[in-house]
Amino acid sequence: MRIERTNPDGLHATPGYHHVTKVQTERLVFLAGQCPLLPSGELAEGGLPGQTSQVIDNIMVALAAAGARPEDVVRTVIYVASPVREDLAAVWTQLNESPLAPAFTTASTLLGVAQLGFPGQLVEIDVTAAL
Question: Where are the chain's structural domains?
């Protein structure tokens, strides 16, 4: 497998992600959007930081189950239920200070959205990995 991450000339500088991710692989892994749910099915407590931590944990478990690591991630979409730019920035910072950080050096999108699927849910992340 080969992953090439680039920032072409003519595009703006990024805060850590790459504009283009090219993959030559035999197998792709698509995770369902990972929510801040505990194994019991209950929503994680602790507001946005607590929920983001649970999403990180859930992604790490799902990647490991697929035989993948954060370095194998080729695309992420991060959804934050907030119109506040500082909330989005706080999630981005927390993700990039976590064991999952290598996943966010690739093609990534960070979105503020009106609502997510579970009552009280504040964050969800969609992940694609290449093996």
Answer: 2-130
Which helix (H) or strand (E) segment holds residue 97: the answer is none
- Could you read off the pLDDT tens digit of each residue along the chain, which spans 131 residues? 788 888 999 898 988 888 888 888 889 999 999 999 999 999 999 999 999 999 999 999 999 999 999 999 999 999 999 999 999 999 999 999 999 999 999 999 999 999 999 999 999 999 999 99
Domain spanning 2-130 has what CATH number?
3.30.1330.40
Rounded to whole angstroms, what are the CA distances from 109 to 4, 39, 89, 105?
A: 18, 27, 12, 11
How many angstroms separate the CA atoms of 82 and 112, rounded? 5
Contact between 88 and 110 under an 8 Å Cβ cutoff? The reply is: yes
Q: How far, in Å, CA of 27 to CA of 43, rounded?
A: 32
Tally of CB atoms within 10 A around 99:
12
The two structure tokens encoding residue 95: 């993700």
